[in-house]
Amino acid sequence: MSRLNIKFLCVIYFTCYIFIKLDGTEYAIFLLSFFFSFLAPLITEYDKHLGELNGQLKYYQKQVGEMKLQLENVIKENERLHSELKDAVEKQLEAFPLGTEIGTDTYADDETVRNLQEQLQLANEEKAQAVELWQTVSQELDRLHKLYQEHMTEAQIHVFESQKQKDQLFDFQQLTQQLHVTNENMEVAGGADRMGKCRGLRTARKLRSHRRDQKWHDKQYKKAHLGIALKVNPFGGASHAKEIVLEKTNQQFLKTVTEQSVMIEQLRKKLRQAKLELRVAVAKVEELTNATEDLQGQMKKKEKDVVSAHGREEASDRRLQQLQSSIKQLEIRLCVTIQEANQLRTENTHLEKQTRELQAKCNELEKERYEAIVRARNSMQLLEEAHLQKSQALLEEKQKEEDIEKMKETVSRFVQDATIRTKKEVANTKKQCNIQISQLTEELSALQMECAEKQGQIERVIKEKKAVEEELEKIYREGRGNESDYRKLEEMHQRFLVSERSKDDLQIRLTRAENRIKQLEIDSSEEISRYQEMIQKIQNVLESERENCGLVSEQRLKLQQENKQLRKETESLRKIALEAQKKAKLKISTMEHEFSVKERGFEVQLREMEDSNRNSIVELRHLLETQQKAANRWKEETKKLTESAEIRINNLKSELSRQKLHTQELLSQLEMANEKVVENEKLILEHREKANRLQRRLSQAEERAASASQQHNLEHLKAFQPKCGEKTGIRSCWKPGFPDICTSGWLWEVRVTRVWKFFT
């Protein structure tokens, strides 16, 4: 817009200059007045436009500064959060035991992996948001740079045009000086015209008095001398027409002189206004040059700031890459630890299988022992039968009385031995039952302890569940709209599900332990009842044996040899059983010691892991809270930035629409001005034609006046030639000032024609 206006003004100025050089001052003065009347609003509008551009530049500079500060804060927060994450993960990895394996480790590992994945996702999202912000800032900087370049080009054009205007002003000053000189000449010519007018009036009076005298002399001459009626003097009509023409020309000349004086005064005022406006324009141009220099300095500073921001962004990208590499290393370490944990789990399963096999072997040994006891009992029965047979044989050989006494002695001895043996066997069985009962009671106490611990864990889980439900209710009461609350709800829901799962697992374990306790109680009661039945059977057997002592005594002799053999076999079996028992006891003791050591180590590691998990959970909660706060703050900032950007876009759209309307108005004004210029050119052509016509008429009137004056002089000379002593009278009538009057009128007409030519 400003370029078109300045070009249009330059065209008008050069047309003024051409018309001043070629035609004259009147049309040039009109064009100059039009030029200065059109220049003032354009300069004010250009100043307003420059002020708006400067305000926009300052606003954008402020926004760029704010965005830089926000970017620096975001980069610092990202660095701090990444450093905290790195430290927390390193602490967790350092605290993570390599040789541990617990049922809950998988759950903790899954939770840590999930938390790390969520943190990685959040970090990637933050990086994406930071990259988007950087892209938007870079786009705004590019746009500002383009605006600055456009403004610089416009400023350079304005400076160049201001230099042109200065040159044109210098030319215009020269032209004004020339116009002043012409105006002075015109004033001098106006004074001469006034003097000529006064002289013309005097000559007109003299001509009238001369005509009256001439008429009176003619009448006297006709009456006195000739009595001849003379014709009308043609000189009188010509002089009268000449006087009428001169009066009209004098009136027109006075009108033109007054109009030109008024126009000259107006032009002087406009020249003064134009000088003032030019001075103001020069001052504004200087201010604009200073403003452009300041803007150049500010843009250089901005470019330096942009370069530093790029450097910082590159440093932040490097730090992000380093953090990503460290996170990858930590993931690799996690994978390695997970593999080691899996290996430990496999080893644990293998050890559990070995323990099961050993338990099966122990059960088999117990079964073999029981079978050996049964065989020993059978052998004892066989021995008793052999003793009875032997006693019977001895009774057959010896006397019945001796046999009876011997049988009594043997029966008493056998009964004593049987009672002792039965007592020993009952004591052994009681000891075994007591040992088993003590073991069962220990297992019951351990299971009860485990049940109590699991019940405590269940109560803790229930308390945590209640706390989570209360937190969920609080969060639901506080509000459901925020994304951070939604994330908290999801996390609390996950924790709730995990706690419910752990509760279900613990309940299942409790039920299993209770079932196991019940089974052990049932087994112990069954074993007690079985042992009681065995004792009753043994007592019945003793009674039956007491009854059948007589029969057994006969077979005793036969079975002594078999008894010896069976004793040898039993001794060998006892030795084998004792060796197996010793080996089993050693293995069981070693396994129990190993299991106790492992259990202690696992308990210590469990406690350490629980402490580390608690600390990590607290740290992760703190980190999540900080990240949520930062995310909320970034959301608010993004909302504010979007609102400001929308407001700015709407303002720019309104400014664009306003500028479009303004450009349309200026184009319509340009069209009107062009139409006015065309009309003025037409009027100028018409005025030129009229001036040419008037000049032709003047030249024709001058020629006619010259010819009429010549004819009048000739006729006057012919009519007033001296006759018979009338020479002195004619000369007295013919005053010596008459030819001077004619010559002065002719000179006045010549001056009028010169002035008219000068103005045309």
UniProtKB/TrEMBL annotation:
For bias kind Basic and acidic residues, which ranges apply? 300-319
Q: This protein is called what?
A: Sodium channel and clathrin linker 1
A GO cellular component annotated for this chain's UniProt record is: centrosome
Q: Which residues form a coiled coil?
A: 64-133, 503-583, 617-711
Q: Which InterPro entries match?
A: SCLT1 (IPR038911)
Sorted keywords for this record are: Coiled coil, Membrane, Transmembrane, Transmembrane helix
Traced from the root, the source organism's taxonomic lineage reads: Eukaryota, Metazoa, Chordata, Craniata, Vertebrata
Bilayer-spanning residue ranges = 6-22
Q: Where is this region: Disordered?
A: 296-319
- Which GO BP terms apply? cilium assembly; clustering of voltage-gated sodium channels
